[in-house]
Design goal:
Order of helices and strands: EEEEEHEHEEEEEE
Structural class: mainly beta
Strand content: 35-45%
Strand order of the largest sheet: 1-2-5-4-3-6
Radius of gyration: 18 Å
Number of strands: 12
Shape: elongated
CATH class of the largest domain: Mainly Beta
């Protein structure tokens, strides 16, 4: 759902970079999972929610100081799969795409989807292999097919990304 960027204020609030298409998705949260970088997910109860400048502000129960909030920086925020809304056909959550093996239209391996980036126009797939990082716009012109069950995504690589 997002990533904790920094503490906000002195009362334990944190600023969150939302991965949700609509930030209002946070307004209904009561419980989430916080996963520190390289760590194990742990449950957290949401105490308060607010709007920040281009971010969501969250306050978790038991996090009452800026120092406690600082320890959460870099943590990913996720929810139980049962709580997420169904997507439309040909729409996917980032967590469904990250980790897929990426193939070009001829079937050649490009690497794996390592991350997603949000831009003003559209999201970007970050595909990485041993030699390079390939950026592919996450739009139908470039994403030709997604096969979640097979763990595959077939893409057309933009001209500027070709060697």
């Amino acid at each position: 759902m997002g990533k904790i960027l920094a503490p906000h204020g002195l009362r334990g609030f944190v600023r969150v970079d939302s991965y949700a298409e609509k930030a209002d998705r946070f307004w209904t949260l009561e419980h989430v999972f916080l996963t520190p970088e390289g760590g194990v997910p742990r449950p957290a109860a949401v105490e308060e929610i607010g709007n920040g400048h281009r971010c969501v502000l969250l306050k978790f129960k038991g996090i009452d100081t800026v120092h406690q909030a600082q320890r959460l920086v870099g943590s990913s925020i996720s929810v139980d799969c049962a709580e997420i809304e169904d997507t439309e056909e040909d729409e996917y959550y980032w967590f469904e795409l990250i980790g897929l093996d990426a193939l070009d239209e001829s079937g050649a391996s490009l690497g794996a989807v390592e991350n997603m980036l949000r831009t003003g126009a559209h999201d970007i797939l970050v595909i990485r292999n041993l030699a390079e990082e390939i950026l592919v716009p996450a739009i139908s012109q470039y994403v030709r097919e997604v096969k979640i069950e097979q763990g595959l995504i077939i893409v057309r690589v933009p001209e500027q990304e070709l060697p």
